[in-house]
Amino acid sequence: MTPAARISAAIEVLADIDARRRPAADALKDWGLAHRFAGSKDRAAIASLVYDALRRKASSAWIMGENTPRAVVLGMLRLQRGLDAGAIAALCSGERFAPEPLSGEERDRLATADLSGAPAHVAGDFPDWIEPSLQRLFGGDLVPEMQALATRAPLDLRVNTLKVSSREEAHDALPHLGAIETPLSPLGLRIAPSEDGRGPAVQSEPEFLKGWIEIQDEGSQLAALISQVKPGEQVVDLCAGGGGKTLALAAMMDNHGQIYATDNDARRLAPIHDRLSRAGVRNVQVRTPRAKADAVSDLDGRMDCVLVDAPCTGIGTWRRNPDAKWRLRPGSLETRRKEQATVLDRAARLVKPGGRIVYITCSILPEENDDALSAFLERHDGFRPEPHDALPGQAGLQSLTEKIRRTAYGLQLTPHRTGTDGFFVAILRREA
Ligand SMILES: C[S@@+](CC[C@H](N)C(=O)[O-])C[C@H]1O[C@@H](n2cnc3c(N)ncnc32)[C@H](O)[C@@H]1O
């Protein structure tokens, strides 16, 4: 397919996403099935155009003066891909499979594209109804913070110290990936996003299959490190899902002590078994929930650490899932908040006197972070937030100290400040 035909296809897919209010991945898959002539490179390039358009949907529509799939793609080519009006006009030739030629107004707008005067939710590409919440966290940094969340994310890997002695060893075994060391996590390797947004097929690398590396954002690696779990501890990973954090904790504990990994959704937990065995983890007991029974009821009051990687809106991962931002609704935030209260209350019963709850979200909304914790502290006597100034240093992450944003109770990572996904981490200590 020609570059112009790929742009036409991206406009078509965006129209489908809008019309049927469906996830981008589903619309892209259907497009591929209906256009079998398109090869894998074409499909990847179209997906990349669609995701870039979703990242910059509001600002692209703003510069073009209308919110149609065509306007969003044209605006994105200008704002995100840096093409000038002439280059975009050359792509829109109107020839077979190419988009229709630019109108006079489109050409003018592309030539003078400018976001000055745009409201924050347009310049930062996010739904306007969350602006007051984000303003509470970011204040004057709101727009640069949200613009950073609208960029493409790199692919981060975590080196598994249960299998490899050092990050260098894994790095040297994978020279063809062109990875660099992540600046903040001592275990991370980073592969920059490519020009067309395609990543390497890391999951088919022999080193991946041998368990040397896992795909994990640096922010998620840091959140696990901040928990400071140690060999010999008794730990519940209450919202273990596919096990990203579980694997990181097991490596920190060097397979000593015990992690009980559970989740209320057995389907989400299912992939953990293969991942644990590939990673050489031997100190994790998976507790799969059966019907409505509590899978960890025998552990109440006995845990040194309960990790609550809470269900959340996932706003901190919008670089990777840009279509999620336009589907977020106030109702889903309310649902997540109730779930957060439920998991925190469950964690409180598991932790022993002197033990701790590590609360993590991949959100930047205060409602899901500090507010969830202050409501918890109102409901539960005998817990206090761990002073968070010292946490990065205690976790051996001095380089994080200057960069991280501190909130009332926790630490907030963001693409703008720490170059990671948006993660929140706080520790609540149960009094001894
Ligand atoms: C952010 S995801 C976990 C990601 C995972 N820890 C990782 O690092 O890959 C949140 C998880 O919480 C689970 N969850 C939601 N409500 C829960 C509850 N009441 N008890 C336990 N898990 C719950 C969801 O099924 C989901 O898998």
Report on the structure:
The chain is an alpha/beta fold. The protein has 2 domains: 3-116, no CATH class; 119-432, 3-Layer(aba) Sandwich (Rossmann fold), CATH 3.40.50.150. The protein is built from 22 helices and 13 strands. It has helices at residues 3-20, 24-34, 40-55, 57-64, 69-79, 85-91, 104-111, 120-123, 131-138, 142-148, 167-173, 206-209, 218-226, 244-252, 266-269, 272-278, 322-327, 330-350, 370-379, 391-394, 398-403, 415-418, and strands spanning 155-159, 180-181, 188-191, 213-215, 234-237, 258-262, 284-287, 303-309, 351-361, 383-385, 405-406, 411-413, 423-430. The strands form 2 sheets. Strands 5, 6, 7, 8, 9, 10, 11, 12 and 13 form a 9-stranded mixed β-sheet that branches. It has a 4-stranded antiparallel β-sheet with strand order 2-3-1-4. A hairpin with a 4-residue loop joins strand 11 (405-406) and strand 12. The N and C termini lie far apart (66 Å). The mean pLDDT is 96. The structure holds S-adenosylmethionine. S-adenosylmethionine (SAM) is lined by residues 238-245, 263-265, 268, 309, 311, 339, 342-343. Residues 145-431 form the SAM-dependent MTase RsmB/NOP-type domain. It comes from Microvirga flocculans.
